[in-house]
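Re: that backbone. Tokens:
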């Protein structure tokens, strides 16, 4: 299963906000630091606001901030609020199911269990875990954000 770009941007936005709790952050700042579209990010931030994850303040001194503590936001919650479907195969959508095996197929149950297990793992990881380097979890990499840093041609 692959997450959409929309979900990727949502997670990056939340991680950035979690590492900058001491101030308001602008959409332009997040877009610039990650090299992503400001217009697309505006849609993502709007949805994060509707989901109750982000506070948005308008105006000249406006910006974004997390509405809840990073330790209270799970990756599973974010993925569920940003992904449009978890249908692993045609048979998950009864209106489009033309598979001959559907009435007695075990694969649908297996795929459903796999999806629930996937979401179950994401439900155990909080935004706080992501930005703190996953204390108490097997550490595979840490995230460091350097404002204004651009990829060099040698690193690309």
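Recovered sequence:
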């Amino acid at each position: 299963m692959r997450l959409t770009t929309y979900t990727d941007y949502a997670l990056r936005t939340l991680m950035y906000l979690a590492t900058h709790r001491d101030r308001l952050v602008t959409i332009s700042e997040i877009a610039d630091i990650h090299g992503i579209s400001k217009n697309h990010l505006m849609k993502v931030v709007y949805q994060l606001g509707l989901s109750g994850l982000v506070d948005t303040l308008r105006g000249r001194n406006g910006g974004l901030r997390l509405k809840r503590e990073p330790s209270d936001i799970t990756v599973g919650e974010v993925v569920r609020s940003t992904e449009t479907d978890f249908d692993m195969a045609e048979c998950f959508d009864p209106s489009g199911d033309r598979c001959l095996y559907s009435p007695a197929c075990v694969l649908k149950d297996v795929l459903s269990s796999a999806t629930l297990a996937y979401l179950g793992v994401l439900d155990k990881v909080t935004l706080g875990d992501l930005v703190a380097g996953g204390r108490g979890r097997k550490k595979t990499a840490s995230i460091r954000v350097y404002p204004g840093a651009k990829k060099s041609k040698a690193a690309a």
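The CA atoms of residues 26 and 59 lie 11 Å apart. The chain is about 40% helix and 5% strand.
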